[in-house]
Design brief:
This protein starts with 10 loop residues before the first helix and ends in a 6-residue tail after the last strand. It is of the alpha+beta class. It folds into 2 domains: about 40 residues, Arc Repressor Mutant, subunit A; about 70 residues, Alpha-Beta Plaits. Strands 2-3-1-4 form a 4-stranded antiparallel sheet, with helices on one face. The protein has 6 helices and 4 strands. One of its GO terms (molecular function) is sequence-specific DNA binding. Pfam families: AsnC_trans_reg, HTH_AsnC-type. Keywords: DNA-binding, Transcription, Transcription regulation. This is Lrp/AsnC family transcriptional regulator, leucine-responsive regulatory protein.
C-alpha cells in the first residue's frame, strides 16, 4: 500500500491558501495585510507551497451567464470493449469533458460535460459509441 507523506501547514499557510482560492490574482501585499506579513514574506511562502506541490496551478472562474448558454450533462458509460485506455485518452482530450470518474456499480465511467450546442454533444456521444453504450442525464438546475 502506498504511503503518503503528511503535509504540515500552519495557520498562516492555510489562510494564504484560502485567500488565493478566493482570488488567485490578489496582490501579495494585500495577502500580507491579512496575515500580518510583508508581501515579500508571503511570496516566499507561496513559492514554498508550490515547490511542495500543495499549490498545483491557478485557474479562472468565468461568468457563464455572460459567456453564453450551455448544457451540463452527466453521461454514464457502459463499456462493450476492453479499450479503456483509448476511451480515457479520447475523453481527456475533449474540451467538453469537465470531469471523468471510473465508477463501481452500474456502468464503468461517469463523465460531466458542458456543451454549447447540440452538435457538440452529438459528436461526443458518437465517439463514445465506438467504445460502449451510454445513458445521459442533463442538468436542469444547479442546487449547489
Amino acid at each position: 500500500m502506498k504511503q503518503f507523506e503528511e503535509i504540515q501547514l500552519d495557520e498562516i499557510d492555510e489562510l494564504i491558501l484560502d485567500l488565493l482560492k478566493e482570488d488567485a490574482k490578489v496582490p501579495m501585499n494585500k495577502i500580507g495585510e491579512e496575515v500580518h506579513m510583508t508581501g515579500q514574506a508571503v511570496s516566499k511562502r507561496i513559492i514554498s507551497l508550490q515547490k511542495r506541490n500543495i499549490i498545483k496551478g491557478y485557474t479562472i472562474r468565468v461568468d457563464e451567464n455572460i459567456y453564453g448558454e450551455y448544457t451540463l450533462s452527466f453521461i454514464r458509460i457502459f463499456m462493450k470493449s476492453t479499450k479503456h485506455a483509448e476511451l480515457r485518452e479520447l475523453l481527456c482530450k475533449r474540451q467538453e469533458v469537465l470531469e471523468m470518474h471510473r465508477i463501481s456499480g452500474e456502468g464503468c465511467y461517469i463523465i460531466k460535460t458542458k456543451t454549447y450546442n447540440q452538435e457538440a454533444l452529438t459528436s461526443l456521444l458518437d465517439e463514445i459509441l465506438k467504445y460502449g453504450n451510454y445513458q445521459i442525464s442533463q442538468s436542469i438546475d444547479q442546487i449547489k
